[in-house]
Amino acid sequence: MGSWRRYRTGVRAAAPLAVAVGAFGISYGVLAREAGMGWLAPLVMSATTFAGSAQFAVASVLGAGGGVAAACVAAILLNARYAPIGMSVAGTLHGGFLKRLAEAQLVVDESWALSNRGGGRFDRSTLIGAGSLLYLAWVAGTTAGVAGGNLIGDPNNLGLDAAFPALFLALLWGQLRSRRAVVAALCGAAIALAVTPFAKPGIPLIAACVACLTGWEGRPRQSRSELAAEEAG
Amino acid sequence: MTAAWAAVGVVGAVTVAIKSAGTMLLRGGELPPRAATMIELLAPVMLAALVVTNAFGGDHRLLLDPRAAGLAAATLPIALRAPILVTVVVAAAAAALVRALA
Questions:
Q1: What phi and psi values does residue A88 have, to the nearest 5 degrees?
Q2: For every residue of A161-174, which 3-state class applies, written as one string?
Q3: With left for phi above 0 and alpha for psi between -120 and 50, is residue B27 left, alpha or beta?
Q4: Does B31 have pLDDT greater than 80?
């Protein structure tokens, strides 16, 4: 029961995002049908790929007659950020091969960010709880989108596209505990902005990882007491 | 139809592989301290990059649209340490308002 309570923490934390994710699931379902993907393929894609921006990319490329190869390349480039993200949570996931394989699929930007406790630590229960809720919202939204068409209109009219940067800023704020983190974050943002005009979406996020090199000369992992001292100071 | 299924299969398989690569490859192995430090910095770096790409990113260009108003509005609840729900709702409302007025 204790662990259920902890999963519930993640579910609660992700609840406001689940509304936005569900609405974007609906618009993905609608767009994918309009792009000629049928109704079952978008649904299977939401259940197996579970990565919004990559799935939107596939639907829009196919819908524009861009071809399978272009669609796949765009989606894979968008998802490449999950390689470093997956490395950061590697120490958090335990258990057998299939369990870790399944849990790793629940890692999306939002669940990863919500479970981040700073200093390279992640809360597994929050990751699983938040990831599961967002997964259900995404698949349910896609189902509604391919089945019912677009009843809510463009989710952007509700400002839902602004929910994501706001969430990430709120979570970033809690991370800026050391000068090193602030410098790295500013470098990462600058690199991402600088690369955006010259690259496909997704590449800026990968390029930003170069900013982690600002930690090259830094001390190794901070202990809890050091973090507490910094916060107190 | 076949094009859609091909994309679903390829993207799905590659995404599953990418997402699980970290936990499969790094299992049990302690990272060298320098790598651990850089992985620690990945959180603020990736979050900052997600903020700016979600707020200003377009296809091969930067955009200044109502998302920026939402982000600007979000700084107030964040500074006041409001719950995330409040922050997200304030940002969405501000963006929707600017979009409706534009």
A1: -65, -30
A2: HHHHHHHHHHHHHC
A3: beta
A4: no
Amino acid identity for residue A220 in this structure = P
Chain A contacts in chain B segment 25-84 (CB below 8 A): 25-27, 33-34, 36-62, 66-67, 69-71, 73-75, 77-78, 84
CB contact under 8 A, B49 and A204: yes
Q: For chain A, give the number of residues.
A: 233
User: Which amino acid does the sequence have at B23?
Assistant: T
Tokens 């998802």 correspond to what residue? A79
Q: Is pLDDT larger for residue B88 or for residue A221?
A: B88
Residue boundaries of the structural domains of chain A: 2-175, 176-233
pLDDT at A223: 47
pLDDT, residue A233, reads 45
3-state secondary structure of A1: coil
d(CA B60, nearest CA chain A) in Å? 4
Residues shown for chain B: 102
Its ipTM equals: 0.90
Which residue type sits at B58?
G
**Cα-to-chain-centroid distance, residue A108:** 3
